[in-house]
């Protein structure tokens, strides 16, 4: 069996209390790596990922996310068009900084 690497570009980690779905993956012992979750776990809540004894679950980022990103891009482009003092790059950089700040605040909780 081929060991799957941790891929946080195409996957996201489940948060405590999220319902585990059949296509989610769980990190098994380091020799095995990521595997599809056991059917008995489907429908249960993901454990607190901050507790080292608990399993870590991840979920593939779906194509729906791509649709949402395209909608966001369209809105930002329209905003920039309506506000001559703003460029697309400035707006995207602003939002990246805001999300980074938000993520850092969430990690420190």
Give an account of the 3D structure.
With 109 residues, this protein is an alpha+beta fold. The protein has two domains: 1-61, no CATH class; 63-107, no CATH class. The protein has two helices and four strands. The chain has a four-stranded antiparallel β-sheet, with no helix packed on it. β2 (25-27) and β3 form a beta hairpin. The longest helix has 20 residues, at 63-82. The radius of gyration is 18 Å and the shape is elongated.
Short recap of the structure:
The protein is α+β, with helices and mostly antiparallel strands.
List low-confidence stretches: none
Number of helices: 2
Number of strands: 4
Strand content range: 5-15%
Biggest sheet, open or closed, and with what strands and sense? 4 strands, antiparallel
Cα distance, first to last residue? 37 Å
User: What's the average pLDDT?
Assistant: 81
Secondary-structure-based class equals alpha+beta
Q: What is the element string, with H for helices and E for strands?
A: EEEEHH
Strand order across the biggest sheet?
Answer: 1-4-2-3
Overall form: elongated
What is the number of domains? 2
Give the fraction of residues assigned to helices: 25-40%
Features:
single chain, alpha+beta, 2 domains
